[in-house]
Design a protein that fits this description.
This protein has 237 residues and is α+β, with helices and mostly antiparallel strands. The chain is built from 4 helices and 9 strands; from the N terminus they run ββαβαααββββββ.
């Protein structure tokens, strides 16, 4: 297995699929594309696999052009293998040990606050009025999602895993935020849509997993659908 390259902390890494700059500490997956190495974020590995890119840990080393042995496993089998590998790698829960209370005199004093680093220039926000009803919020969030690049991910996975279950739910803590969960039997994706900012920053991938029991009950209650192009539509009430 080829070792993953260790990047310096100040190195800026961008995903070759979605173009997103990876966060500090976020490790990319390395793929081989026509003999070149490409960094792919965790949320875009499905799209990279669907495009036929070869994971460096599974394919030949750069410079070695030996023949590939056998065909690549179908996407469905790779999802199952990844889920089984994740189950094996999960550590067992440690037994609970009651801790002795720490006297107040021995407690460490809090560190002084530090000023956050100034953020770089960002695309101007296009602020919009947020609908008041949950139904209108869901409909608007789906429209913003369909105008983003994320339907391509949904369509790519659906070609292998079938029609997904889609749940669109406005956030209970932030009035302008709507969560969209697209789920199959073997994986799920969570997206967040900020109705107050309908620019490219307004839709983001907020998580993914391989077990449906990782989701809350309302995230598995389908109230929308996806077509063959990955475009969503809210079910009529």
């Amino acid at each position: 297995m080829a070792p993953k390259a260790i990047q310096p902390q100040n190195t800026v890494i961008s995903c070759a699929v979605c173009g997103r700059t990876l966060l500090q500490g976020e490790r990319p997956e390395i793929y081989l594309v026509n003999g070149a190495r490409r960094s792919v974020c965790e949320l875009c590995t499905v799209r990279a696999n669907h495009q036929g890119w070869i994971r460096e840990s599974e394919g030949p080393q750069i410079g070695h052009r030996g023949e590939r042995t056998g065909e690549r496993r179908p996407l469905l089998d790779r999802f199952r293998a990844r889920r089984d590998r994740r189950r094996r790698d999960e550590p067992e829960a440690e037994p609970y040990v009651e801790q002795e209370p720490v006297p107040e005199s021995a407690a460490a004093s809090p560190a002084p606050p530090t000023d956050p680093a100034p953020a770089g220039p960002r695309e101007p926000r296009r602020v919009h009025a947020v609908p008041t009803s949950e139904e209108l919020k869901a409909v608007r969030a789906v429209e913003v999602f369909n105008a983003s690049e994320h339907p391509r991910t949904v369509a790519g996975v659906a070609r292998s895993l079938g029609v997904p279950s889609v749940a669109v739910n406005p956030s209970t803590s932030l009035a302008s935020l709507v969560q969209i969960v697209v789920a199959w039997e073997l994986c799920w994706y969570r997206y967040e849509v900020d109705l107050a900012d309908e620019s490219a920053h307004g839709v983001r991938a907020a998580g993914q997993g391989y077990e449906l029991n990782e989701l809350e009950p309302h995230e598995t209650a389908a109230n929308a659908a996806a077509d063959e192009h990955g475009l969503l539509a809210v079910a009529a009430s």
